[in-house]
Amino acid sequence: MDIRGWQEIHLLNSVGWSLFFEYIANMFYALGVGKFSRTPLGILVLLAAAALAHLAISSPNGDVSGGWALTAEQLRVGLTRTMFPFFAGLLLPRVFKPIRVKNAFLWCSVLLATALYMPRISGAEQLWMNGIY
Length: 133
Hints:
The chain has helices at residues 17-30, 38-58, 72-95, 104-116, 128-132. It is an all-alpha fold. It is globular and about 45 Å long. The protein starts with 16 loop residues before the first helix and ends with a helix.
């Protein structure tokens, strides 16, 4: 049954679609990506970042929303949205050591608010600018 007409993977828990892609990312981890050294993992992060940037810039809607349906296009969107943060999360602790930042909560709040205060940059003619943002 398609409750809302969006062809969702998880009909009764619409946000559960992201767990599907997180399971796939964890399968990659279990199959050996978790044992990669910094260099191959860095290459994987760069490839995933390039795929995410391409999706963001070339998206017909000017964003990276999608991934909740079992179609080829939506699976590509969901995998692309999941792989960069997952692989980057594996790489960060291998590259950087944790440091103390004075007033870290304040700085993170300011950065987050700055990023979220401007959800759209331009009109329908220049949707690629939202992908750059």
